[in-house]
What does this fold into?
Amino acid sequence: MSHVNTVSFAIVAASFLLVTLIGFAGARWRPAEDPMQLNEWGLGGRGFGTFISWFLLGGDLYTAYTFIAVPALVYATGAAGFYALSYTIMVFPIVFVFGPRLWSVARARGYVTPGEFVRGRYGSQGLGLAVTLTGILATMPYIALQLVGIESVLAVMGVGTNSRYTFFANLPLVIAFVILAAYTYLAGLRAPALIAFVKDALIYVTVIVAIIYIPRRLGGWGHIFGAASAHLATVNPATGKPYGSLVVLPAGEWAYATLALGSALALFIYPHAVTGVFAARQRDVIRRNAALLPAYSLVLGLIALLGYMARATPAVNAGVAAGYGNAQLSVPLLFQHMFPSWFAGVGYSAIVIGALVPAAIMSIAAANLFTRNIYKELIRPQATAAQETRVARLASLFMKVGALGFALELNKTFSINLQLLGGIWILQTFPAVVISLYTRWFHRFALIIGWAVGLAYGTLQAYLAPGGGQQHFGASTAPVFGHVTYIALTAVLINLLVSAGFTLVFRAIGVTDGYDETRPADYSADAAPAALAPAAAASAAAASALQSHRPLRARRSS
Amino acid sequence: MAQPAVPDARAVPRPLTRGIVTCLLLVAIGGALVVPIYARSLPKLGGFPFFYWYQLLWVPVVAAACWLCYVLLRTKPAAQDGPAGTPSGNGAGPGQAGADR
It folds into this structure.
């Protein structure tokens, strides 16, 4: 792994060039009447139908975490890592229930971010700000994680890693990120929406080939599960216990279920997921996608099995050991040892582009939050739409620089754990964002107190959790009454109890509640037929729109 | 700033439809959440322990359940109702919608 594989590298470079061109072309795709509206840059004009939304959300939700971290967990611990499949099964019935209401109220009120909805629902700047800061905080390490995914591919390809100077070692990653930042700046959400098509094509091809071809070379599924089982039964010298098991043991069932449920509840309140939902053209697009997106869950399940295939390949085990036991290298190494160089290149491209798409959407989502909830709310309330869009574009650049800093400065294990911490943090906005869709019973100040307590409890518990050779932030589970539970779930229950208690107190002493600007009808609103008609005939309309707006775009880009 | 939007009077489904949808979604979630159902290695299928093939099989089951719920709750403007129609999401005519049960 010390020399660069030219064939694989050429394929990855070519794919990267292709998506770069597509990214810049995104600025001219489905052109807007007024591109300087935040709706346009930040939500792709809210015009994506079922088909594009499927690619966009799939590209958005299944990240480098899916392709690198989940199989790495399965590689290292076995069945426990499969909670990710259970989680992506549960998430769609959950979003089926609340997704359409969130979409409707945002559409009816022109909200671009979840923070705006909460501010409007409770008439509380503070609560909106709490949701916003939590969203930005939880997104930053998530973007960094995408970079870690790209890094692991580069490491296996031998690019940059053998350089003596840190600057050159990180150069490929920095270049990739600068280019990503450039087309996101220009095209906004349209860029990742277009690139998602390429990403998904590469992922599906790679996974289908891997799942048919690799087991044949390894002597069948029976052998793969056998080899994994034999490894998992051996005793880990660090803990004195077996590495894991092939089937979740009774003692691990509670942790498995709570990790899956907590992650499923958290996923669709992450800013990038909300952005994907808000970009839909019509209310029913969300429900249709809840039924269609599980296709990606199937892919996730198959990718998780790559962890076992890696375990059954001695060369991969040797490679991981040589990489200081970094299990995140297992999938790229598996591709390297099982596939011819050119197809390994296709697989690497799938991982790299699979990391770029969510990174772009996450930075856009965080930029939208900053613009609408911090800039417009606190800094310049009179900002025009064009000023908003300009600020959002700049904010997306800052988000990427911050994430790059995260990825380059912090060690890898730490950033994985920060992502788990991200789940703990973001779930603390569940009462304000999701429960508020159904009831306005909670008092705004009570929700702020509940959020703060949940956040403090969750962060403290995670800090105290040892694991993976670390004293702190080593795990995302902690025992509660003898059951090992995902900290996020315990924290949000405490959050709810505190919120409910203080609501009763504030009501009793008559603390004024905020003004709710939403109306019951907002929660079931759909796009007006008038607005739908041109969108439905997009193919015809786009051609003429492109003509009429060309002068405008030319002026903007110069 | 607000987008053009119309309140959808027919978005409230009938109680029966609501009940069926709730049950379907709860079963879909429960099948993954209640781990003891599938935390076993037998019976195997094509070399896969039960734990794995059950979960992989549950994915399309949940997708089908969500699609069924979508069809049940579908609200389309009457003008766009083709011959396929919407079975019961059309709260506009409770009597007529009840006929398909």
User: Anything to note?
Assistant: The longest helix of chain B spans residues 50-73. The first strand of chain B starts at residue 5 and ends at 6.
